[in-house]
Every structure is written in structure tokens, then in C-alpha cells.
Amino acid sequence: MGEALLNVKGIYASAGDKTILHDINLDVPAGETHVLMGPNGAGKSTLGKTIMGSPEYKVTQGTITFNGDDITKLSPDKRSRAGLFISFQAPVEVPGVPLASFLRSIAAQHKELNLRGKRYKNRIAEIMDQLDMDEKYLTRELNVGFSGGEKKKIEMMQLLLLQPKLAILDETDSGLDVDALNVVSHAIQEYKKVCNGALLIITHNTRLIEHLDVDRTHVMVRGHIMAEGDGSLIDNINKNGFEQFGLPDYAKKEDAEEAAAQAKAGAADDEQPAQKGMFAGQGGAQGQTFDADSALKNAEAALDAAGLKSKGGTK
Among 29, 141, 183, 235, which residue is least crowded by beta carbons within 10 Å? Predict the structure, then answer.
């Protein structure tokens, strides 16, 4: 592996009071294709947006370095001009903004591309031909009324126009039929051929990956990278799923604490009718008290297994 173009080091990120990313470390060298896989809700899209500087998420620890510069606190537009790009899983609709105006605007922000006048028009025509798109799309409002496949084509259009140093593709294959998937795959291959850009492909299935040569695979579970390997790790996942990687330690502790809290709450509920039964001289109280004791024992066992129990009781 060469020197990293993108270096994510010890990143913790949160949305509101909830921490979603836990101690993320990830390197992507220039020109390489990396895949980030994991079950739904693992935090994959959160990582992509955090790298791109989305205001939805706050980095509380760690650094993000791109092309040798610390970009942890940079705004998304500055990260874009530095050579980062993200293709969104669900591109937003922007009423009132024609696609042609949007593309011309983003091209103008990247002066290094030198896309003006006839050069710009020729490049747009070339890209639309590669994506099998009619020029009528240019007059339509950005993503308004577009199908899922059409929206993904617009994302690929931006990718080919901007030619970033690194592109993050977030579930780009989601919702695509076979024909649209082939078009998107062709666009990604063209991007690699034209500028040898690096890719970080976020997905939980392998439809798009099948068309690419993968250098490195990263597996995320509950906001933490649990495994890394070469492209063969993808075959392993197809055969054995994500459960083989288990849970990060922090998640085990969270689950144990939640189970313990639920067990104690259930035990307290069971004790109330048991006490009423004893005072009233009714039978069956002993059995109800036994259920409460069992619940407490199960709670303590869960905490003990997670390493959270102290000699004086639970922490």
C-alpha cells in the first residue's frame, strides 16, 4: 500500500448526543479502490458524510487528512475544491435550478479544470454520450421528477465532470436496474481511466463491486472498523455474512447495560405483586419472588460478561 491520499485517524463523530463513529482509522492511497461494507445502520454513510464535512455530524475526536493537509475543520465546498467528491445515496431534489446551471456553477468553482465556453460544452456533450443521456436533461430542474437511476446518472455526470482525486460513492448501486447499473459501472471505469482517481465505495452488497478491481476491503459494524483485507474478503462476506465479525467492545457493553437495566426494571415490577400477595396471605408470592431474583442474577451475569461488574456491585 502506497502513501495515503486520505487518512482518517481516531475519528469519533456524533449526531446530537449520540456517538455514531467510534475510533475510525482508515487509509486510502491515491489511485486505489477501497470498499466499505457492513450491515444496515453500521455507520457507513455517516463516515462518508463526515469525511466530506457534512454539518449533520460533529467530529469530537481524531483527524482527517487529505493530500497531506488537515481538513478536519474545513467546510464541504473547500474539501470539494481540494479534490474530494461524494455521490449521495439519495440525491436531493432542487426545484428552480436547471441541471445545466448547476453543472456550469460547480465547474466554475474548480478553476483547475479550465472548463469554459466551447471547451465546457464539448465536455458536457461527451459525458452525456458516455452516460447515454439526452440533452433534454439539461433543461430540467436538478433531480426533480427523476427516477432513482436518473439521479444516479446525474451523480456520475458530476464525477466525470469534476474528476476528483478521491470519490466516495455511497450506495450508488441502490435501486438500479441492470441497464442503469451497467451505465454507472462504465462511468466509474471511465473515471479511473481518465484521472486514475481513488475510490471509497460504500455498500452492503456486491453488485457494483463485481465490475471493479478492489484493492482493500473494510468492514464496519456498529460504527467501528471490525475487519480489513484485500478483495477476497468480499467473497468471505458473501458466504458467511457480517455476523462473523462480532461486535466492538463498546457495543457489547452498551447491550449488556441495556439488558441489565431491562432485567432490573422487570424484577422491580415482579416484586410489587409478590409483596401484595404476602401481605394479603395469598399463595404464589414465593414463585413471583423467585422470578425477580432470577432476573437480577441474569442482569449481573450480563454485566460481568461485559467486564462492567465491580466487587461492590455494578458500576
Answer: 235
Residue 303's domain comprises: 249-314
Q: φ and ψ at 31, to 5 degrees?
A: 80, -10
Q: Are residues 102 and 220 in the same domain?
A: yes
Residues 198, 220 within the same domain: yes
d(CA 151, CA 233): 30
DSSP for 148-190, please give it. HHHHHHHHHHHHHHH--SEEEEESTTTT--HHHHHHHHHHHHH
Note whether 239 and 257 are within 8 A (CB): no
Nearest Cα neighbor of 241 from 201, 214, 203, 205 is 205
Low-confidence stretches of the chain (pLDDT beneath 50): 279, 283-290, 310-315
- Among 191, 226, 245, the domain boundary falls at 245
**What CATH number is given to the structural domain containing 56?**
3.40.50.300
Per-residue cell: 33: 479502490
> Rounded CA gap, 216 and 199, in Å?
10
The CA distance from 172 to 35, in Å, is 12
How many domains does the structure of the chain reveal? 2
